[in-house]
Write a structure and sequence with these properties.
With 723 residues, the chain is α+β, with helices and mostly antiparallel strands. The protein is built from 33 helices and 17 strands. α3 packs across α6 (147-158), α10 packs parallel to α15 and α27 packs antiparallel against α28. The longest helix is centred in the middle third of the chain and has 20 residues, at 361-380. The N and C termini lie far apart (98 Å).
């Protein structure tokens, strides 16, 4: 090993080729580094001072009869690449390609040809050579994202030839050069460099760990096709994704997920203590090395396993899902939406485990649909997800949960008090009214609902990609000027309701502020050149009939929240028993039907019978039937059915008459039957003169009360109404 100060002009002397080895990472510098280098080049030119550009490590290679000196770049390829791109652009601008070729190319005298002095690895070679052979000062286009092309274009657009001088720069850029001889171990040096803080991805470190120069052919046949076949594939693995508050390379994300799966393999018998350490993303490369060493895992076996999972990951995991179409049916696309839009990255190990071990696409989609239901129900209910990492990164894999039935049993046998319990339908209904979610999560929930509700149904407008929608508060956050408060509500209640899901809408464009905060009618119709909700949201299913309302207030918000909740329960079903007390009226009513029933036409009249305190309509009808039996104690159930006949009942409700025997009620297949009749009301079970037990209908509207009132008065009962 030899070390010393070296000028750039000495390193690139017209007879030396610098080769970037196959295990080195691709070119990753960005505008921040290009801008800094350009500024430094201008400084060197203006001052004529030496400029230290760090240390480099080069290894001498056996050249045989090669006409030039060949050295491998162990450390320094990012700087050498950037300098080559910079000088190429500068020399094109100054029409001085002769100087460039004298330093950045080498001549083969026998073949009478010139070759580029920096030989890149496979991923960057095509783009780098594309720049190096340019003979005119022009911008370059690229069919796929390329840092090489972007760097050249940056210098093309920003270099001022009056501020930089090629000769001054070549003689004043200084490195500390470390030279290794042909027999010295560059892999050991490579590991040392990385241990001192050079940030490489886990994939690059593992590539270097698994393969050496002697196994290069295996690397090219196995590793390259999966991770480095071309620039597009390399960009996929190099892309940055969010994992919680941390940004990580996609390839690191994969290797973290794979390790979570591997350590649950029962044949390896990884200790609980090691599992805790290995699942951490910190020190991931060292965790791999420790696992392989401690548990005597064959490297080649692990390589094959990694490559199979990596192919599944590449074929199914899409970090750009927000820019693509989302189908309405359960499947991997909607799972990707959960992972990368809602940032449930902890799902990935179990999703990969399912993709590897469940061959039936139909069964996989059932499992994916159930996971979606589980995650979205917990999201709506604001359940604590801190244990998700254990669930999807360990427990489900360790317990080999590979069928929909096993998954249901595992998750639904937990009580509501347990951390990972599945929220019931009743909790979901409350969540749509009470939960306040971050804007992006609220928008994502509405978007997933929209895609599901549109599935298989024609629509006048196409659903755009998620990134094209924004969230709108129908009752605006700044409501004070144009939105009078409904009687019976205060400011705190209104401010609470304006944040719930019932008040939120997804729109393909953000409304002008003056429209957004304007009155309901202006917000719907727009003003001047600014369009309103009728233009942007007319075909949004989750806005069904909302725009036909003449008012938007606290009541309509709650009704829409409950309507959305019923739709969500259909989309994200549970297999838990129905929570009867919280069960909503599940008749197939539109949102506007519910508004008319519950708001615009709702009547709060109470009735008193025979001077007793006034009660609700359903209690009043029950009291009338009881009073009739007390007056006619021998009346049979058949006779009662003739007096209290079905014609007296409110229309539009699912029921089996005004009266229903306990026996008939038990045989009726309707999950809301206890709400439709007086089953849970105090004294709700009555008995006829011939011993038949029965219940009384509870579904009453003011328009149908006249028949009951007339019947009561005909019997001599006193009836009074109170508003």
């Amino acid at each position: 090993m030899d070390a010393g100060t070296k000028q750039l002009a000495d390193i690139l002397n017209g007879n030396r080729v610098l080769e970037v080895p196959y295990y080195q990472r691709s070119y990753v510098w960005k505008e921040e580094q290009w801008e800094r280098l350009l500024s430094d080049m201008e400084y060197i030119t203006s001052t004529g001072q030496d400029y230290f550009l760090g240390s480099i490590i080069l290894k001498q290679e056996q050249t045989g009869i090669s006409p030039y000196d060949l050295q491998t770049v162990i450390d320094g390829q990012q700087r050498f690449t950037t300098l080559a791109l910079f000088f190429k652009s500068l020399c094109l601008k100054t029409d001085d390609l002769e100087t460039f070729e004298g330093k950045f190319t080498v001549r083969d005298k026998k073949a009478k040809t010139r070759h580029i002095a920096i030989r890149h690895s496979i991923n960057d070679r095509r783009d780098f050579e594309k720049v190096m052979v340019l003979n005119s000062d022009c911008k370059l286009e690229s069919d796929v994202p390329s840092n090489i092309i972007d760097a050249y274009n940056y210098f093309h657009e920003n270099i001022d030839p009056e501020k930089v001088d090629v000769d001054v720069l070549l003689n004043h850029i200084i490195f500390i050069g470390i030279s290794l001889q042909a027999g010295e171990d560059e892999q050991a040096i490579f590991d040392t460099i990385n241990s001192l803080g050079v940030k490489l991805t886990t994939g690059e470190l593992l590539k270097n760990y698994f393969f050496t120069e002697s196994t290069r052919q295996e690397y090219e046949h196995l590793w390259m096709p999966i991770f480095e076949k071309d620039r597009e594939l390399a960009n996929y693995w190099d892309s940055t994704i969010n994992s919680g508050r941390i940004k990580r390379a996609n390839i690191d994300f994969f290797f973290n997920a794979y390790l979570c799966i591997k350590i649950q393999d029962p044949s390896i018998k990884v200790s609980a203590e090691h599992k805790v350490r290995y699942r951490r993303s910190v020190g991931l490369f060292n965790n791999y090395k420790d696992l392989i060493s401690t548990y005597s895992i064959d490297k080649k076996d692990m390589i094959w396993d990694i490559l199979e999972y990596a192919q599944l990951y590449h074929d199914n995991i899409n970090p750009e899902i927000a820019n693509g179409e989302i189908p309405g049916k359960p499947g991997i696309e909607r799972i990707n939406f959960l992972i990368f839009v809602l940032e449930y990255t902890t799902l990935v190990p179990y999703i990969l485990y399912i993709l590897r071990n469940v061959s039936s696409e139909e069964e996989r989609n059932e499992i994916f649909g159930y996971i979606e239901s589980y995650v979205l129900r917990r999201q709506v209910c604001r359940s604590d997800n801190k244990n998700f990492s254990d669930l999807f990164g360990e427990n489900l894999i360790l317990n080999q949960i590979l069928t929909i039935d096993d998954l249901r049993d595992y998750l639904e046998n937990k009580s509501e008090e347990q951390a990972l319990a599945l929220p019931s339908d009743g909790m979901v209904r409350k969540g749509f009214v009470n939960s306040h979610l971050p804007n992006k999560r609220s928008l994502a929930i509405l978007y997933l609902m929209e895609t599901a509700l549109r599935e298989g149904k024609p629509h006048a407008t196409k659903l755009y990609t998620f990134d094209m929608y924004s969230l709108e508060h129908l009752l605006p956050k700044n409501w004070q000027d144009n939105w009078p408060m409904l009687d019976g509500y205060d400011k705190d209640q209104r401010d609470d309701l304006k944040l719930c899901l019932g008040n939120l809408a997804m729109l393909p464009a953000k409304l002008n502020t003056s429209i957004s905060n304007a009155s309901w009618q202006t917000k719907k119709s727009g003003k001047g050149k600014s369009q309103g909700l009728l233009f942007y949201a007319a075909d949004i299913v989750t806005m069904s009939d909302t725009l036909s309302l003449i008012a938007w207030n606290e009541k309509t918000i709650q009704i829409r929240a409950k309507w959305l909740a019923e739709k969500a329960i259909e989309i994200w079903p549970s297999y838990l028993p129905e929570d009867e007390e919280d069960a909503a009226d599940a008749e197939d009513l539109t949102f506007i039907d519910k508004v008319k029933r519950n708001c615009e036409n709702h009547d709060y009249t109470k009735f008193s019978l025979n001077g007793k305190p006034a009660t609700t309509k359903n209690q009043f009808v029950l009291d009338v039937v009881r009073a009739y039996i007390e007056k006619h104690p021998s009346v049979t159930y058949t006779e009662l059915l003739k007096v209290f006949h079905e014609g007296l009942c409110s229309r539009g409700h699912k029921h089996k008459g005004l009266l229903l025997s306990v026996d008939a009620h038990s045989k009726w297949d309707n999950k809301y039957k206890d709400r439709r009749y007086s089953v849970k009301m105090n004294g709700g079970k009555l008995v006829s003169g011939d011993g038949v037990e029965f219940y009384v209908n509870t579904q009453w509207e003011i328009a149908y009360m006249h028949g009951i009132i007339k019947l009561a008065k005909d019997e001599g009962f006193t009836v009074n109404a109170e508003k």
